[in-house]
């Protein structure tokens, strides 16, 4: 695919996100949009954000649960990019008018102390982590009815729109990272329970896989970056007035309100 076409497709997903307008699948009009081209579109769409003054603050893993992988018919997760405009402070409000059909999922987040360059094992990746915290990711596909193929969702930056990090950072080695109990509540009602083991079997495995996937194209994770390791349960639709909270054993909680 030509650079010009990649830029055109990046403008379509970026405009849709900025103007809160839904679009049809890019693959419907562009049969050449394979996974490699889709990551190029994602990167070009992020370049547009950076040119507007946003900063790259980290990366996210998507489709990390067996259920989501089976649903999409894939064998490996996908990754997206996190920018400064996606950060919501713990306890703050999010405006649903800035989203199309937002859903929320509980996650475990890493903050990196050092760069991570693949190939690495989960244990090696953990050695570069400053700490872990509870997180909530809001996803909002730009595609009509949240329907997409794998290249479409990669091009659309894996549906990223907002995320909240809990205010407590725990040393990764101090917690039982591979099997932490997770409870997500909406308006005080428990809506999902799960375990961090649902995140690619272990959040550290997800982190290492991300570094290894980036290494295929010469990329790496950088010190100070945030990594969302993947959804631990199904994602839930959000409505105005919702108060959302995740509590993760041993690492704390994160919350936001919808308006
Ligand atoms: O963060 C995620 O797991 C989302 C990945 C993209 C698929 C979706 O939007 O559900
Ligand atoms: Mg997610």
Q: For this structure, what is the CATH homologous superfamily? A: Fumarylacetoacetase-like, C-terminal domain
Round the Cα radius of gyration to an integer and report it.
Answer: 17 Å
User: What are the distinct ligands in this entry?
Assistant: hexanedioic acid, magnesium ion
Main β-sheet description:
8 strands, mixed
CATH-derived architecture = Alpha-Beta Complex
The total of beta strands comes to 13
Note the beta-strand portion: 25-35%
Overall structural domain count: 1
The secondary-structure class comes to alpha+beta
Fraction in helix: 25-40%
The DSSP helix count reads: 6
Report the principal-axis shape: globular
Folded structure, characterized:
- Helix 1 packs across helix 2 (35-51).
- The longest helix has 17 residues, at 3-19.
- Strand 8 and strand 9 (189-195) form a beta hairpin.
- By secondary structure, this protein is α+β, with helices and mostly antiparallel strands.
- 25% of the residues lie in helices and 30% in strands.
- It is globular and about 50 Å long.
- Strands 1, 2, 3, 5, 6, 7, 10 and 11 form an eight-stranded mixed beta sheet that branches. A five-stranded mixed beta sheet has the order 4-13-12-8-9, with no helix packed on it.
- It has helices spanning 3-19, 35-51, 66-72, 122-126, 150-155, 203-215, and strands at 56-62, 78-83, 87-88, 93-94, 103-112, 129-139, 160-165, 181-186, 189-195, 226-231, 236-237, 243-248, 252-258.
- It has a single domain, classed as Alpha-Beta Complex (Fumarylacetoacetate hydrolase, domain 2).
- The structure holds hexanedioic acid (0L1) and magnesium ion.
